[in-house]
Amino acid sequence: MSYDTVRDMKVLDAVVSETLRMYPVAIATACEDYELGNTGVVIAKGMRVTIPIYWMHYDPDFFEDPETFNPNRFMDPSQIKHPQYAYLPFGAGPRNCLGMRLALLEIKVCITNILRHFRFRRDAKTMVPLVYRKGAGLLSLSNLYLGVEKRTDVK
């Protein structure tokens, strides 16, 4: 599989972007002097502030029907409706994650290879709907059971 092939997988791009919106992988912190508009509130250098990425990604002011998994919201960049800094799976601006492009490429290559070689099915023991424990760190869930079958129709 070539780089160009992976790069041109627009539906997979949208699915990954929507997954990162709904399930951000980590919290972010900011540590520099910053005045909050004209409020007189200053975040002093060295003070740690946690940016609530998860809650921003679920804000209905930024994302219509935020509880619904909808990759279409990322299919056409000209139709993206949320503000630039409302979607932050890798941070934003000059200090965003240096490994973002590599991470996205690795995600797409892994998903593509896994789906080429295996079929997945939800096992009857899986509780529906899935229940996630949401907090300051990574999301986690329990009671997810998958059946995995090696595909024989590909080389």
Automatic annotation (TrEMBL):
InterPro entries: Cyt_P450, Cyt_P450_CS, Cyt_P450_E_grp-IV, Cyt_P450_sf, Insect_CytP450_Detox. Its cofactor is heme. Its main location: endoplasmic reticulum. Heme binds at residue 97. It is a peripheral membrane protein. It is found in: Endoplasmic reticulum membrane; Microsome membrane. GO terms for cellular component: endoplasmic reticulum membrane. GO terms for molecular function: heme binding; iron ion binding; monooxygenase activity; oxidoreductase activity, acting on paired donors, with incorporation or reduction of molecular oxygen. Keywords: Endoplasmic reticulum, Heme, Iron, Membrane, Metal-binding, Microsome, Monooxygenase, Oxidoreductase. Pfam families: p450. Gene3D superfamilies: Cytochrome P450 (1.10.630.10). PANTHER family: CYP9F3-RELATED, CYTOCHROME P450. Belongs to the cytochrome P450 family. May be involved in the metabolism of insect hormones and in the breakdown of synthetic insecticides. This is Probable cytochrome P450 6a14.
